[in-house]
Amino acid sequence: MKRYEKRMIVAVFVIGLVFGLAQGLVVPVRAAEQIVVCNWGGRDSDLEKEAFYDPFEKDTGIKVIITSPPLVGKIKAQIDSGNIEWDLILTDIPSIMTLTEEGKVYLEEIDYSQIDAKLLAQIIPETKRKYSIAGRIYSFNICYNTKTLKKLPKTYADFWDAKNFPGARSLNNSLGGIFPQLEAALMADGVPMNKLYPLDVERAWKSMDRVKPIITKWYKSHGEVVQMLVKGEVDMAVTIGPMVISEKWLGAPVAAGFVEQKLAADNWCILKGTKNKANAYKLMHYVLDAKRQGKFSSEAPYGPSNMEASKYIDPKLAVDINTAPENYKTSYWQDVKWWAEVGSDGKSHRERSIERMNKWLMQ
Amino acid sequence: MCFVSEGLENLDIIRLRLHTVVEKLSGNPIYLILPLILYMSFFYVYPLVRMLGMSLFSPQFTLQYYREFIETGIYLQSLYITLKISTLVTILCLLIGYPLAYYLSGLPPHKANVLLTFVLVPLWTSILVRTYAWIMILGRNGILNQTFMKLGLIDEPVMVIYNIVGVCIGMTHVMMPFMVLSLYSVMTGIDRDLLKAAQNLGARPLETFRRIFLPLSMPGIFAGSVLVFIISVGFFVTPALLGGRKDVMISMIIEQAVSVFLDWGFACATAFILLFLILAIFLISGKMIGFEKLWGRRA
Description:
A: alpha/beta; globular
């Protein structure tokens, strides 16, 4: 081999090595003026973008990068490794419980002094919590396919009654971390809605035993069961009402009932250790704004967390929203405090119920 | 790096040194696989060791996760269901895949390639799409049931989904390409003259198949079965969507431990129990059939 050929080979090796090492040493640089939001994706995410993120970008120039879903495992991995990619997340109470009660705390405490006081006063009081503030209200409803189902169930007692209300049913299983529907089981057994908590757990599981044989499919994720309802694979299910109403507004033959509906909040949280806190609080002023929430709820039928937002919703659409006055009368709030209560075995009611449901489903 | 240009002597020394290094490297084969060893050590062995550490230390040494797995009834039950479903899927793939591969291996290459493409195309489709397609076909309100009901053959929908039947159908469909390819690659290597020779010596077709072709195709059967079995054991999406409440595969248990309970120690312990179980099955079944036969060497 000639002299210059050898030199070329060595040079290529060295350049390759240096380049390779340099890649590993470069710390991922984030543009100063951007914020990463993690939500549930799908159509709701597009509607959020229209109502909140695009105006925010236009007014402040800060770019909003959307990603999904807010997987708890991913958040743990990010914070444990120090490589935090997300700033603000929109997630539900079960996830927040996992992120704050399983030993290590992965969320920042909300600094309420950073949010405009007048705006704060408009937010539903119970949803302003230590690690989260509600962005919207979702609900667990009795949902059904109006084409395949002749007799529509109204209450959970109806849902539990296969003889008078025939049809294929679906309930959530424990694998996805969704709460076992113990409240529904108790109401089906005759417990009045306002006397649910503290839950009589043994009575609830006895009631669940009665519904076990008539469930056709136990679903792991809400997306799965909503599609099954739309296609008529199941005739009725207990799942997130707003997701089903969303399909209804798009023309699918489905509907949700608002009697005995369980209300809960989708919340905004800040990941612990993110360097983008200032921008996060700026974005919060947009996602909590009454007019913007009104616009969002007119497209995605979630209840707004801002009590003034109902002024901005078309009354014809408002009847389908879970927090509308008529619907609110027959609803109850999920008692998050009870579910988070830790017992003598060091486990919360939620953990214990999920573990019990694991066993219960396998028998 | 600077290129020494002063004095021809320095250049000669460098050239000589480079020569000896290159000769030493190409002399011993270990240097050729060194890059692969480094890659595997860093990206495979090291994470595996860390996971083993997570399952045994919390942070003191503890066997609690392994104990929890064995003592709580449902995890062993889930392991049993996982092995049961994986075995069923492997057998189904073998029963359907073997005749298919046999036929394909007898075809001229250009015809075989076209048909092989049909076998491979499902592999390139997203598994979620394929699973949802099965829901559309097998579902209560699916094509199969609607057709049968319209033809008046049945009054109520047949439940071939949301139970072990649906899971097996879906998983067999997904695993089939692996089995067919493994069998096909071995079968094309079997000398057809041997079969002709056997028949010349008086063997009937069935006997020829049983005594000549089948043993020679054993390496393919073993490779295909092992591949299908091991992938099936880790399956996740298809059993979750097509299965019933009891069809809980061990991968779903691990996922719940990781995402819902954030109990990574338990998740790692479960993963390692699974790993050792699979290794044990592999070694025992290999020993029973005889490793030499499986690798295709003469006993």
